[in-house]
Structure formats: structure tokens, C-alpha cells
Amino acid sequence: MITQLHISNYAIIDEVDVAFQKGLNIITGETGAGKSILMGALGLILGARADTTVLKAHDKKCVVEANFSLPKNASAIDFLLNNDLDNEGELIIRREITASGKSRAFVNDTPVALQLLRELASLLVDLHQQFDTLQLGDTDFQRKVIDALAGHEKLLLDYQQLYKQWLSAKEDLQKLQSKKTDFTKEADFFQFQYDELTEQNFKENELEELDEELQLLSNSEEIKSALTQVSFVLQESEDPIVQGIKQVAAKLDPFQNFHQKIKEVVARLRSTQIELQDVAQEIENLNNNFGFDEQRMQIINDRINAGYKLLKKHGAHTTNELLELQRELAKKLEASLNIDEKIEALEKKVNHLHKEGFSLAQKIDFSRQQQKRKIENAVTEKLVQVGMPNARLQVNISSEKELNFYGINQIEFLFDANKSNRFDPIRKVASGGELSRLMLCIKSLVAENIELPTLIFDEIDTGISGEAAKQVGVIMKALSVNIQVIAITHQPQIAAKAHTHFYVYKEQSGDEIKTKIRILDKEECIHAIAQMLGGEKPTTAALQSAKEMMEL
Predict the structure, then answer these.
(1) Do 182 and 306 belong to one domain?
(2) What b/e readout covers 327-337, taking b as 16+ CB neighbours within 10 angstroms?
(3) Which GO terms describe its biological process (predicted)?
(4) d(CA 78, CA 67)
């Protein structure tokens, strides 16, 4: 709800502060005092465009600021969260129009675009002015009205959950079908690549190991020559090293018991002799089995050449990368083989979810159709109450074959103002105060069931008086039990139903006439309503009538 409205330098308003209250807020006052100008200023908060013509004084900016409390407005709270705007329980919206005509908008001191402001404001305030259908012509709102009266919220939530699952399954199916098309195009190519790699039958690190072996074979003659020389030096030369160490150890052997260190040196010499004998034997064995193998070199060269071609072809660097590619190709081919089964399973799932969803949608359709006559009759009765005896509402609920997020229905409210039997969509109807009264009648039916923003009516009383005006006041007061209602009126019957009565007036201040607004106390309310009944100087009878209207 709106808790505070501050306006400065707007039209004929120098500076005004209005503290709106819960319930029904009525605004009355002198003709030309600025009542409707208040609505114009509030329109800036709601995102209306403005120019320098709104400036009272052209040497300073115009500022309109509104404070809102958001204790139960879940939609507005979610909007602030989704748009990274601060929310501390109170919301402040400010519009500024500079002398140059530049307009700026702020939400809790954060600059915002005008479109974002409009979206947020639509969740906070529903302003009804002459020729302004606003939310009433919104088919989404019309559906909410039907659903609120039908009371099938759980059924609708169950359906929407199923609908989301159906959409998700459809999307998965489309992706899989698209993937199958791609697989069909690429399957032969994948199979060729896989067969080419499978034919080579590479082992892990094979090419790297073959390269090492090739290096060894390429240098086999030099290696064998070196092995022969080393073996000769160790065992077959005139002074073989192994034999020489054995002789050295033998010379020291008689003296082992004379000194511990001699004993340790002899032991080390014996160990060295044994190790060298083993090395010599290993070299001899290696030499005997080592040699140039031209056939093996050819096999290795052929294998490496085949491998390097595949490495270059696939942009790989190692044998293991080729093996990983082979595994990936195998998975793709396997997936290609299994995709038909997956598609078949998903098609069954999609059809099953659609069948269940359509069944729930038909139940919702039936529930809505049950409300059609009820809302038509209820609204028509209320329209008679508010001075529109010839007006009728028609609810058009069509059933479609395709599912949508809200079921299978397209809902539209049609309106006939004069029993012409020609019903037109409300969004195309423009009949001033009648539309505001129609909205009042509809919203009064669902105020307890739908989260509604603050309702503001500017001249809802156009063309009515007497009992019809009284009934408008009665409905507005009942509606204001659940939501905040603000209305500008010229009818005493409506003003008498106010919880809070604001009076707009002009005041002389030096050479200037300024617009002011204040809350009337009980006695002032009686006097103001009596003036609306009987003129500037109300009679005793008018005062008594005012008290009766206020039920005092």
C-alpha cells in the first residue's frame, strides 16, 4: 500500500505531502483545486512520460516521491529480488524532471529505466482514470479472476508442474532427434575413423616405445662394438680387470687379522670382484643377443609411419591420445546404435505426460466453465447496483487442443453497455467512469482470493448519483477491507463511506495561490459532505443528511 506521497513543483502544486491510510481513502475538494493533478503526479511514479510543462517553477526540478509498504506483496518482493533492487520492507519510488526536461527514476535510491519502473509500479498500484482500461483488459488478469472464483489453485499448480515436465521432455526429445540426424550424417565417417584406428590395434605408449627401440637398432653396430670392448677389458685382456682385483685381494688376504680396516678393504674388494664378474657376464650375454635386425627395423618403421600419419590426421601427439579418440568414437557409434531406443522411450514419456496434462487441463476447463455464468450474473447484478442497469458482462472461455501454461483455455471478458447484444472485448471499450465501475464490480468479487495492488479511482462517479453512487461507496468500502483503495469523487454518497477523508483546497500565500491537502476530522467530514449535498453554506437538514450517510 501507499503510505506517503510527496509532490513538489508539479503543475499548480508548490509542495504537498499526503499520508495515505489503510482502507478507503477518499479525496474531495474545490473544483480546480488540484484533485486530478494529484493523480497526474502519481502517474509519474507509475512510469508515465513527462516534459517541462509539468514544472510549476521552471528554474527548479519537479520531484514526486511515493513510499510503499510491502508486507504481503509477494509479486513486488520477487520483482525487487529478480532485478537486484534493495528491499527492506519499505519501498521508495522517486521521479525527477529537471528544468531541461530530463527525467530520472529511482527505486530505493537506485536509478532505474522507465520500463522497469512501469513493470514494478503495475504490481503496486492499479490506477483507473477516464478511458483507461488498464488491468481490466488484460487476459491474464481475467483468467486470474476465473481461477480465484473456481478455487482450484492446487489443481492448477499440479497441472503446471506436469506441463513443465512435458515441455522439458519435449525439448529432450527434440534434441535427441536432432542428434540422431547429425549421427546419421556422420555415422559413416565415424565408423571409418574407428575402423582405421581399430585396424592398427595400438597398445598404450606403443609408438613412443617403438621409437626408442628404433633408435637402439639404428645404433646397434656401435653399441655391439662397445660391448665387445668392455667385455674384453673386464675379462680377456692381458691384464683383465676382474682378475686384477682378485689378485689384489689375495695379496691383502694374509693380513686381515692384523687390522680391522684391512679386513674391511678385503671384503669390499671381494664384493667388487663379484659385482664386476656379474657385470661382465651381463655384458657378454647382451653382446651375444644383440645385433642389427634389418627385418625388425622395417617392421618398426612401417608401424611408426602408420602411427604418425594418424597422429597428424587427428591432431594428436601420443599413442594414448589416439586410443582415447578410439574410445570416444566407440561411444558415439554405440550412442548412434542406441539412440532409436532412447527416442522411442522419450516419445512414450512425452505422450504419457501430454495425456496426463490434457486430462488435468480438461478438469480445469470444466471448473472454469462452471464459473462462467456465476461471474456473469454476479457482475451484472453489481452493475445494476452501481447505476449501469443496461450493462452486461459476458465471459468467453474457449477450449483449445494445444496445452499452454494455464491449461487449454483462452479467456476473454466481453462487455455490452446498452443491451445491444453486441459484446466487445473490454480492451476495446472506452466509456470513462463505466469502465472503472466495471473493474470495481469484478475486483470486489475476488479481493479475498487474488493479491491485488492499491486501487485508485479517478472520477468513478461519472454519470451516477443517488442510490447508484451509494452502492459504489458500499462496494468500495467492502473492497477496502482487503486492499487499499483511493478515490477522487464528487458524490457525497461515496465520500461518506471513507475511512480517511482528504480535502484538497487552494490557499492564498502572498501573491501566489497554492494547492494544499489535509485529512478531515469527523466534524469536518460531516461539514464537507453537507457542502457536497447543499452548497457552500449547508443547512441543518444537509448536515443531518451527511451524518446519516456516514451512519453516525
Answers:
(1) yes
(2) eebeebbeebe
(3) DNA recombination; DNA repair; SOS response
(4) 18
Q: Residue 13: which domain range?
A: 1-131+434-439+448-520
Asked which of 308, 338, 368 is the last residue of a domain, the reply is 338
Q: Give residues with Cβ within 8 angstroms of 244, minimum separation 6.
A: none
Whole-prediction pTM: 0.66
Residues 127 and 181 both lie in one domain: no
List Cβ neighbours of 337 (8 Å cut-off, separation of 6 or more).
none
487 closest CA partner among 521, 436, 548: 436
Looking up cell 456473469 gives 376
Query: Does residue 496 contact residue 164 with C-beta atoms inside 8 Å?
Result: no
Query: Rounded to whole angstroms, how far apart are CA atoms 134 and 128?
Result: 7
Residues 327 and 119 sit within 8 Å (Cβ to Cβ): no
What does the pLDDT look like over 4-46, one tens digit per residue?
Answer: 999 998 888 888 999 999 999 999 987 777 787 888 888 888 8
In a domain, 115, yes or no: yes
CA atoms within a 13 Å half-sphere pointing along the CA-CB vector of 250:
6
**Residues 218 and 89 occupy one common structural domain:** no
Q: Are residues 212 and 292 in the same domain?
A: yes
